[in-house]
Specification:
This protein is 31% helix and 19% strand. The chain is α+β, with helices and mostly antiparallel strands. It has one domain. β1 and β2 form a beta hairpin.
Length: 108
């Protein structure tokens, strides 16, 4: 399966690649993004968190993760259903790098 570049956003670093599988006739769009700048930004911002304040910084998630979560839960990014799913995901260990203080986000 070969890929064809559809777009690249220099601001977010998001690249979209179109793939066509000739055997199955299936088309897919792959979203590629270097998430390391988000991890670094989150780590820097998280150092100054004061948990006694009524609101505090939790983390920053990359656009590619928003798209991945939308595919997993079946809701559009930023819709109510997606937000509920995203909160659950941010509480998982595997996404700790985007939530370095391991702050438990509230689920409604």
């Amino acid at each position: 399966m070969s890929g064809r570049l559809l777009s690249h956003d220099r601001l977010t670093g998001m690249t979209q690649v179109f793939h066509h599988d000739a055997d199955t006739g299936r088309n897919t769009i792959e979203h590629i993004q270097d998430v390391e700048p988000y991890v670094e930004h989150t780590a820097i911002r998280a150092r100054g968190v004061v948990k006694k304040e009524p609101m505090w910084y939790v983390g920053t998630t990359p656009d590619s993760l928003h798209i991945q979560w939308a595919k997993e839960c079946g809701f559009r990014p930023w819709s109510q259903g997606w937000r509920e799913y995203a909160v659950k995901q941010m509480n998982r260990r595997e996404y700790r790098k985007f939530n370095p203080n391991a702050l438990r986000m509230r689920e409604k």
